[in-house]
């Protein structure tokens, strides 16, 4: 279902505006693990360039290339990330990249769309002391200190089952990559997972590392960029925005009751929530 994000109907501008960015802790974890140079990084499934940009700015790699199958996503990325390069393509085939030339390969909330064969391509292009960093953010969780946190948590996830339209990739995403095909699964490579770091798994923890003060309006806009939500809207145009039939709007109405929001004007009232975050780090087995 990666094709969802490459269709002309997909709202790229809203994706760029309402999807979250990754926290400094993530990039620091990559740098702490990485043993190689910082000359050449490739960001696979780069979308609008959220990670690509930070590999230049925060991680300070000299040359960074973002790769994505969506021309619309790349067009947006090129406008907003002038210090990186962008190439139309897929993770499974990077013929323009020389063998053993890349210091760092990243895939931010994208690897669940890749075919397992991408690991062989990663092994081909990665330098002997290089790093592969695969990371994923999960659903939105309410602030655990909120007095109605449990009820908010149940309600915020209630729309997903009613929406349907989830693919295998979505399910892998929901499981925070517990079921992601790893090196060796039918495509033997010399890469191996060396480390995994989880932040706020299942919304737990004293501090949400991907926290946002969100209004119901921004919550709605973010959720509408999710693949299953976009596919539902395409198939149900007459129900979109109807608080009786649109699963997301029905959830909004329930959240209004919990948060004691009485009318549409109060939809800008902020509440704290955040995403869980996991990163899987790989290098060659003998490193």
Determine the strand fraction and express it as a percent band.
Answer: 15-25%
Largest sheet: 8 strands, mixed
Shape: globular
Number of domains: 1
What's the number of helices? 11
Radius of gyration: 19 Å
CATH topology: Rossmann fold
What do we call the CATH homologous superfamily? Vaccinia Virus protein VP39
- How far is it from the N-terminal to the C-terminal residue, by CA? 35 Å
Q: What is the number of strand segments? A: 8
Look at the structure and give the CATH class.
Alpha Beta
Low-confidence stretches: none
Helix percent reads 25-40%
Taken in chain order, the helices and strands follow as HHEHEHEEHEHHHEEHHHE
The assigned structural class equals alpha/beta
Q: How confident overall, as mean pLDDT?
A: 86
The CATH architecture is: 3-Layer(aba) Sandwich
GO molecular function, one term: S-adenosylmethionine-dependent methyltransferase activity
Protein name: Methyltransferase type 11 domain-containing protein
Pfam family, one: Methyltransf_11
GO biological process, one term: methylation
Chart the SSEs and their pairings.
Elements: H1 12-18, H2 24-33, E1 40-44, H3 50-57, E2 63-68, H4 71-80, E3 85-88, E4 102-108, H5 118-125, E5 126-142, H6 149-156, H7 158-163, H8 168-174, E6 191-199, E7 210-214, H9 216-224, H10 227-235, H11 247-259, E8 271-284
Parallel strand pairs: 1-2, 1-4, 2-3, 4-5
Antiparallel strand pairs: 5-8, 6-8, 7-8
Family: Belongs to the methyltransferase superfamily.
GO molecular function: S-adenosylmethionine-dependent methyltransferase activity
Protein name: Methyltransferase type 11 domain-containing protein
